[in-house]
Design goal:
With 638 residues, this protein is an alpha+beta fold. Among the domains are: 259 residues, Beta-galactosidase, Chain A, domain 5, CATH 2.70.98; 115 residues, no CATH class. Helices cover 30% and strands 28% of the residues. The strands form eleven sheets. Strands 1-9-10-11-12-19-16-15-14 form a nine-stranded antiparallel beta sheet. Strands 2, 3, 4, 5, 6, 13, 17 and 18 form an eight-stranded antiparallel beta sheet that branches. Strand 15 and strand 16 form a beta hairpin. The longest helix has 18 residues.
Length: 638
């Protein structure tokens, strides 16, 4: 049995199987995602979700799903499944015998004497999904029908039946081409075997997405089915369906399918699952390399990029991808700030920490490679520009105080990574001098001085070090304040203090670091990461659930984040060395079990603060995966 495998008993239980999702992306920014039984439960699910740069910077669902029908002796058996009001129809999951993820997602169906395998793969560099059907067993003549369900809409929206749609299909080699709306690229669906296309255009109404219901969003959509493809299959025969933005040569589909499989890292253990997942976050398109913050709904984010990138690339020796992404991001620096959200019309600059994580990311490159020359040639001017702009003062009231501390914030804006905002305003505004911002600021100044020997920067760092300890540390409480704003100090126990133990340069001594780690371990550490607030705090929310308002209020008020654990582990190893190795190894191994949960073969964005710490949020998050890989690397070097 392979590492990730589900049997018939699990698959036919919808309460179980609909909670397991698969996500596969390619290097050009497209992805395919659905549940392990092929029933879409999110508006973000689709077999081909791909950029349409002529429309906007979002991804778009072109091919939502396909439903296969086995036709034998005049009887039809539909293998598809979709949710409609009050029921699932058809109920093709009852024919599923097996799901395996090795080397690519594969479902096995049994209908009487018919055993049919279905495998899905994305082309690495082309916007195309391929589905391979293999007739493992059959005794009498059998036909396969395939109905494509087309959406042609942004992945944030839903499709509705309308008269504007173009129902005409254009014949292409062994397939048909569809273009529902003028502004879209056409979608070519072709098969490796000659087939017949039977046109019967129709809308399928009120398909429901149960995860959108849970999240408090619109959840019903109408999908267009233009007809069906039909062909005969014999025992041992394989046929490939291709759906892409360009026509392909059908006779080459089998060969190209096998070449794609040969590229894949086997998902045969925990570490290989992490490595596979890591590669899925890097997208190259239009001469740019970007890091996608998470699937399925995140675009690229500045802060997330710099935090996740070292773990996703440098730990595996992939310096080329690291430099490509950093070079792309470096072009976006404006006035000391990077775009926090870099996806479509939502682009904004409200991240005080993204520039400081940029320092850390460059610093990690030096630690992993020792290549100081590249840093000085490519990034030194950018680093200096950030320091200068912060000292001079920039947007959002970001400026350096007389004592060297970095201050930021204005009403209604959340500048740190704890950035949830509702109609009531920021949930955790943290206006003033946040603890991790100043730990990062100190590290940035020291690192720049290391590179240049700049005496002014060195003097500022020494002033900052003294002020940091004076303002944030309390000898009686034995931990760090979360935010300092003049005479006001927030003593809520949050994980932000942990970075003062992990960063290469810290203003704390070892005794203080030990006290911080002990406080974090006793109040915040869980098997899935660090809570964002101690459970005994009045504002603590142990479950991330409900509508968007309710979820946003829990996002940084107790919800567990795996990525924070990387910095706890690094601080712990710095203090304890080899004696701390087993403890950190156990932290990592706790995630072995999540490979068959939620986003299969990857790690979720967040988890509930309360046991059993259920996975929530995005099914695959870049910094969750990146920091686990970095933890494994750090342990290997002890």
């Amino acid at each position: 049995m392979s590492y990730i495998h589900f049997d018939k008993t699990q698959l036919i239980n919808l309460n179980y199987s609909l909670e397991k999702e698969i996500i596969r992306s390619n290097r050009s920014g497209s992805y395919t995602s659905t549940t392990i039984i092929g029933c879409n439960t999110r508006k973000y699910h689709g077999l081909l979700v791909t950029p349409q740069p002529q429309i906007d910077t979002q991804l778009h669902v072109l091919l939502s799903n396909v439903h296969e029908t086995v036709v034998q002796k005049g009887a039809s058996f539909n293998l598809g499944i979709a949710k409609y009001p009050g029921n699932y129809s058809p109920r093709g999951h009852k024919y599923i015998e097996d799901f395996d993820s090795e080397p690519i997602p594969k479902l096995t169906y049994r209908v009487g004497n018919v055993v049919l395998e279905k495998e899905i793969i994305l082309d690495t560099h082309v916007d195309r999904v391929k589905i391979k059907y293999t007739m493992v067993d059959v005794y009498v003549p059998t036909k396969i029908r395939i109905n494509p369900f087309l959406a042609f809409r942004s992945y944030h929206s839903l499709s509705k039946a309308n008269d504007r749609i173009n129902k005409e299909a254009v014949k292409v080699k062994q397939g048909m081409q569809f273009k529902l709306y003028e502004e879209y690229y056409p979608l070519s669906i072709q098969l490796s075997k000659p087939n017949e296309f039977h046109a019967s255009p129709d809308w399928y109404y009120n398909i429901e997405y149960i995860r959108e219901i849970e999240r408090g969003y619109e959840y019903q959509e109408d999908l267009f089915v233009p007809g069906y493809f039909e062909f005969e299959m014999e025992k041992g025969e394989s046929v490939i369906l291709s759906a892409g933005l360009e026509d392909t040569e059908p006779e080459k589909l089998m060969e190209s399918f096998q070449k794609e499989i040969a590229r894949r890292i086997p998902r045969d253990n925990f570490e290989n699952c992490l490595k596979n997942s890591a590669g899925q976050f890097i997208s190259r398109r239009g001469g740019e390399a970007r890091l996608i913050a998470g699937y399925p709904w995140f675009g690229w984010w500045g802060r997330d990029t710099f935090i996740a990138l070292p773990g996703l690339t440098l730990t595996m020796g992939d310096t080329q991808s690291f430099l490509e992404v950093m070079d792309t991001m470096s072009k976006d620096l404006i006035g000391g700030l990077f775009p926090n959200v870099g996806s479509g019309v939502m682009t904004n600059m409200n991240s005080i920490d993204a520039p400081l994580w940029y320092f850390w990311s460059v610093q990690q490159y030096l630690i992993y490679t020792g290549d100081e020359q590249t840093i000085k040639e490519r990034y030194l001017a950018k680093l200096k520009g950030i320091i200068d702009d912060f000292i001079q003062g920039t947007e959002f009231n970001i400026h350096v105080l007389e004592n060297g501390l970095l201050y930021g914030g204005q009403e209604g804006v959340a500048l740190t990574w704890m950035d949830a905002v509702t109609h009531d305003g920021p949930v955790t505004q943290r206006k003033g001098c946040p603890v991790e911002i100043n730990a990062l600021w100190y590290n940035a100044l020291c690192f720049y001085n290391q590179l240049t020997g700049d005496e002014e920067v060195k003097a500022l760092s020494e002033k900052l070090k003294s002020a940091f300890v004076k303002e944030f540390w309390d000898d009686k409480k034995r931990y760090l304040a979360d935010v300092v704003d003049g005479e006001e100090k927030d003593w809520a126990i949050r994980p932000n203090m942990v970075f003062s133990t992990s960063l290469p340069y810290s203003p704390l001594n070892d005794e203080q670091k030990s006290e911080v780690l002990e406080m974090v371990q006793s109040h915040l550490l869980t098997p899935r990461g660090l809570r964002t607030l101690a459970p005994d705090d009045p504002g603590y929310k142990g479950y991330y659930m409900g509508n968007q308002y309710e979820r946003d209020n829990a996002y940084h008020q107790g919800t567990v984040w795996p990525w924070l654990m990387g910095h706890f582990a690094e601080g712990y190893l710095k203090l304890h060395g080899k004696s701390g190795k087993k403890f950190v190894e156990n932290m990592i191994s706790n995630f072995d079990g999540v490979m068959t949960q939620y986003g299969v073969g990857t790690v979720a964005e967040i988890y509930d603060g309360e046991p059993p710490h259920r996975p929530k949020g995005a099914i695959s998050q870049a910094w969750s995966v990146g920091e686990l890989l970095r933890m494994k690397y750090l342990v290997s070097k002890i």
